[in-house]
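Team,

Forwarding the record for the chain on the shared tracking sheet. I've put the sequence and predicted structure together so nobody has to dig through attachments.
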Amino acid sequence: MDRPKDDRANYTALAGGLTGCITRFICQPLDVLKIRLQLQVEPINGRSEISKYRSIAQSVSCIYREEGLFAFWKGHNPAQVLSLVYGIAQFSFYERFNVVLRELESFEGHDRARNFVCGACSGSFAALTIMPLDVIRTRVISQDPGKGYSNVFQAFGTIYRVEGIRGLYRGVGPALLQIAPLTGGQFMFYNMFGNVIKQFERLPENATLPPTELFFCGGLAGLCTKLLVYPLDLAKKRLQIQGFSQNRQTFGKHFVANHMLQCLYQVCRHEGVRGLYKGLNPSLLKAAFTSAFYFAIYDQLLILFNKDIRKSN
């Protein structure tokens, strides 16, 4: 009698992992563009003569001209493993924790609060799990051609040998600070927008929305939450490249900071408040597409797997 529950749990984890892989491959070029712009100290301005990257279109052209088409998938291997592990950890933890909180009287009638808490906790757990891969991905994307790390295993060994465990968890502070409201907000906004559409279309609460509307809900959820936590994401990326300056000599001035508060202060002091939002445009595009694909694909895979469970029973 327990087998159907086990099957559903396994399919939830599998759906989360597959969703992460598919979404990562589609959105990886936007991730490369976002990280390059986030790490640039010089102004992102079309009139700047000292900046390597001056706009989205110019950045795309520059990367393609200097490094070729495959540069847009730099760091794809660690990013793909990251997405797989993150998807499994986040969604499986979310579903299990949601079942637990449904039994608590304090969350009865407070679906949005429950979704937020479940999303925040699942995101924090997943972020800690994949943090070393995130550091490696950031450095591979930001390193000079022909320098730095040649593969994930060499990167992991080198960072651990030279910088220790701390090197593998650089940027963990802003990562955890942003991930709770980011993932919690995504699940909360996603369910909120979904309920609004169901009420507007007079659908029952347990109805499944079509893929286009799931895509729309996921996209809006990603945009709303990303705007709130973006400066923390920028701080995380800048902290992740500390100690890596010798392998990124062609990208302009190297940013130096020892911790999150110093990082945020240095950015505001030398680059202005707008500096905290460098790379925001490709980041918003990535957040919208990632969330939209994530939720739409995840729900469709669950529908497919649930049909498989019913057939097997």
